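ingest -> fold -> write
write: protein_1
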Amino acid sequence: MTTELTAVAENLCELRDVSHVFTLPNGRPLRVLANINLAIQPREILALLGPSGCGKSTLVRILAGLIRPTAGQVLYHNQELQGLNPATAIVFQTFALYPWLTARENVEIVLRAAGLSSDEVQARTERVLHLVGLASFEESYPRELSGGMKQRVGIARALALEPEILLMDEPFSQVDALTAQSLRAELLDIWSATERNPSSILLVSHDIQEVVYLADRIVILSANPGRIRTILPNQLPRPRDYRSPAFIVMVEQLHDIIAGHELPDEPRPPTAPAAQRLEPLPEATPSEILGLLEYLDARGGSEDVFRIAIDTRRPFDHLLRVVAAAELLGFVDTPKRLVVLNPLGRRFLNAPTSDRKAIWREQLLRIELFRLVYTALQQQPDRSLDQDFVLETIILHLPEENYQRLFDTFLHWARFGELLSYDEVRGTLKLV
């Protein structure tokens, strides 16, 4: 009992049975997080890894106190959090700099808002700008800075507040690969070399190599709603080498965990009778699906999903959506980590354009959402329907999906197969 109480007391911040529900514009609830239990410990880097829609950014905002969870508790030093979390500062994905202020002024403004004296503002600003390598750029405006330099300003601004927990929401996704690699190394140097805060870092990422390089613990989330699937300790010694065998093994272990869930060998058990069950459409464009099939065809018909991600330079979670879309359409099979172009996929690729459209339409009508809408259109005297019919169908049958994104994917696929046309001004669908 004493050990458990001590462990709880040592946590900087903790989520207990946290769930969150957003209200959609039509008034319907959208559950984005379910029963999250997670603690941030002193002197650690904790990474959140998962597909789009798993609530990673929502978790960050709940930890910062920007959002109050629908259910559950947020604890700060074992006391329930009220309002904003004084222990945190956020580094945003999109830099979020004031364009009319210089690099120095972008840092100073948050310190003044925190009520610090002029001397303290100046001292902290100079320290953090020097720390992130911006001492020579302090009078530059954001428009004069590269993406990497802008993100350095964002990091400096957060560090200036000396937070116990630095929250980083995909901080390197808007910069090129080499800059991102450099920023990761610099961040690790700053965190490990100083006795000042931040004590810990919470990193949101979709980049598996990034989290293996930085994190001490890796939290893998599933989506719709966001749940913790597993928490993986990362005991690789620092400094870590992207090319070392142990690093590569860890990366592949994470790929296996994620791919095994997103592309299961066995179909998931149905939650409704087949005649009523609608499947969500993976967010992928027809051109991306076609590109995947052509990639597989050029490599003899099959490839490891990890290798495809490397070759195509796609984020792994996005590639999995493209593969899942191709599988839903019946063009590929996914045994273990392989993506295999099947006979239908080959026939589709080798067909002339008109036959491709026919095959695509035929496969669409094997998917319940398309079949349902197609049947409804056929029953209308003018063969047209208001878009609200599709939106309401999605919301009714798939309440935890992002209905607008799913509708956009539905339209992309239907129009590519010339199944129907869409009048954006009137918001109507019509059979071709």
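write: protein_2
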Amino acid sequence: MIDADLLTVLLPAFAAGLIVLSTHLILGRQVLQRGIVFIDLAVAQVASLGVIISHHLMAGAEDATIAHHLFPIALSLSASLIIAWLSHYLEHELEAIIGCIYVLAAAAVLIILAHNPYGSEQIERSLAGRIFWVTGVDLVIPAIVSLIFLLLVFLFPHILYNWMFYPLFAVLITLSVDLVGVYLVFSTLIMPSLATYKIPKRRAISLACLLGAMGYGLGLLISHELDFPGGAVIVVVLALICILFRISHYYLTKDLSKK
């Protein structure tokens, strides 16, 4: 039996997961189709770098909430637009360049936090996230931006196939990193989409949403009961669920094709 106190912790965390899922399932399919899987890690790491820089620049400021959001978004937007520009000229080397951007951003984080006594904690938070500490207030901006994105995709689906994809991707990834961390953002973007990639698009997104919700729900419960890091447990649970689904789907379709 789940008590009320537990629900006050789990519900905001689960809601954060659903908000991230609502946009990342669409983005993830595009990333796989474009063959730029590491763009998520690169942009997420750049956003994380932006958060850490903004914390240093705004240390001691009375109200740095706006800067806390705007600086990481500006940095990740810059990275995504550079990638969009390079995609027209260096298509075959693009994935390697994206990997280099990720490594440079990660190295910059280590340099900035080298003499910070709380540096290891900040790095862990940026990678593993703070999903159990999410509050309703933290969800407002990501929820609004996600709704706007979904509305834009519904009204103008072509934005997923032109240059607009990159800035939209950057904004959504940045907001998600602040909620759930780099690892969980990448896992949410890639794992459900990869598990359902061989399924027709509309049905695939519904199934991917179900897999993702199961991963977040079970992961949160297990991590709470065993007192393990929430983000890390959700990543592992989500991976296992997606692997089992992909294997089951393969053998099921194989058997049906024989009949």
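write: annotation protein_2
Residues 4-258 form a domain with the ABC transporter involved in vitamin B12 uptake, BtuC fold (CATH 1.10.3470.10).
The chain has one domain: 4-258.
pipeline exit 0
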